[in-house]
Amino acid sequence: MRLNGPSRIAGVDLARGLAILGMLAAHLLWIREPLALTDPTTWIAVVEGRSSILFATLAGVSIALVSGARVPLVGEARHRAQLRLCTRAFALWLLGLALIFTGVPVYVILPAYALLFLLATMLVPLGARSLLIVALVLAAVMPFVQVVLDALPIWTTSIGNDVSLAIGWHYPFTTWIAFVAAGMAVARAGITRLKVQGWMLVMGAALATAAAALDAVSGARGLPTSFWQALWTGEAHSTGLLEVWGSGGFAMFVIALCLLASRTILTWVVLPLRALGAMPLTAYTVQIVAWAIVATVLLGSPGNLAAFRELEPFWPLTLCTIVGCTAWALLIGRGPLEWALDRLAKVAVPTPSHESARSH
Fold this sequence. Notes:
By secondary structure, this protein is an all-alpha fold. Helices cover 70% and strands 0% of the residues. Helix 1 packs antiparallel against helix 2 and helix 4 crosses helix 7 (173-190).
């Protein structure tokens, strides 16, 4: 079965599947915030902000896996991998713009993804320890810088709004590169190793718990009125210090949990979610295009978020996406957009004939 092939890591696919589900829930459900463990009606709030950060961390895992896994590529092979990442970044950016033009009222993550891919090309030569240091430094420093960047007057202008959409500023690459570096670090350390998975689980849980406790004590909610209030918060999409550390830790915890679960018989139980996670770009794109079509037909326009949510589209869209991805994975294999992106990168940056012949 293709989902169990040597090139796939079941736990990583499962984590991606959960990230897609979380983003669907964040888009399509009414979410009560803040999250309170004692109030089950607020538990769905766990997806707000954290799903996209999980997505970004998994992007780092994927980038490291295609650029040498535990041992970074060197020489021509590294240069080729970096150029292919650049090609993927450009294609993702164009696709992101196309999804923005559908008029669906969500912040499309693909432009930010594209910029993160570009920045990640500079991290490809690094090993696990260096990547971990980069991730920790960025997570400690960039939230301070991000408060200043977010306060720039340009964002309140019409030009600034267009620029914000074009670069995915709702998911600011300036700080989110820390999540990519963290994902690359654990992949370089050997993400399939039980010891690495155990450390990810413990440290991720510790970071998420500590950040949540500090955020609860701070009580910083709503629009910030000072530099320190904008910095010292764990609120979703704030890019505050506590969100970066807490949601980054949460992402590591979820990835580790998925990897550990996939060592058991549960890996077969969650096969549909693994299929969803094996083609995240296809699933993400399809749900936005389907949203645009359904909302236009039923409501006359895709731009009314409240009216679309009132149609209760979450379960129909989610179940159709999962069933479609599972059928495609079992009957055909790789997701169509994943295949197209990989093919484009290899055509744009081909493997030299002498290396291709040697690999056979």
